[in-house]
Every structure is written in structure tokens, then in C-alpha cells.
Amino acid sequence: MSGTTFSDEDPMGAAARIEARLRERLQPSRLEVIDESAAHAGHAGVNGSGFGTHFRVRIDAPAFGGRSRVARHRLVYDALRDFLEQGVHALAIETF
User: Which of 15, 47, 52, 71 places its Cα 20 to 30 Å from the Cα of 77?
Assistant: First the structure.
């Protein structure tokens, strides 16, 4: 991922990379990654391409067992830290 930002990716590429990372790190039983960037046109962090900056993640994973909502979200943020540093502006997380 070094040297690449999400604005350099095709519309499906960024979401697919986020999904692959979450599958690798958290082995979810349920996962949905939705690129909501187009709905945020004109907002802070939008790169003008209509994709790759604002995502919604719906996830359930065995690693969440017995953890608070904050701790579950922290696991997701930790897994995606470099994505956030390289162009993902907003990440809405729904854990189950």
C-alpha cells in the first residue's frame, strides 16, 4: 500500500482492499464494506472522484465476543489504521 492513496484506486478497489484486510485480521463471520463516498460530495475529505474516502463497515467476528462496542470498534480501526492514514476520511462501523 505504500505510496498509494485511495484516490488512485478504481471504485471497487478500495472497498475490496478494506474487505480483504478485515478478513485477514479479524476472520469475520459477517462482513459488508460499502463505499459511501459519492453521498458525501462537497463534504470534508472528499477527493472529487466519488469513491475511496467514506466507507461503512458492517462486521461480526469471533474476536468481538465479550467485548464492548468501543473495544470492537477499536479492533476494526486498528486493522485499518494504514488505510485511514492514506486517504480514508470517514469510517462508519456497525458491529454485531
Answer: 47
Superfamily the domain 6-95 falls into: BolA-like (3.30.300.90)
What's the rounded Cα separation, in Å, for the pair 60 and 88?
Answer: 21
Q: Give the cell for residue 74.
A: 477499536
Contact status, residue 63 vs residue 26, Cβ threshold 8 Å: yes
Q: How many residues does the chain have?
A: 96
Q: Which three cell numbers stand for residue 44?
A: 470534508
Q: Say which amino acid occupies 64.
A: F
Q: Domain map of the chain by residue range? A: 6-95
In terms of DSSP H, where are the helices of the chain? Answer: 11-26, 69-79, 81-85
pLDDT single digits (tens) 27-45: 999 999 998 886 645 555 4
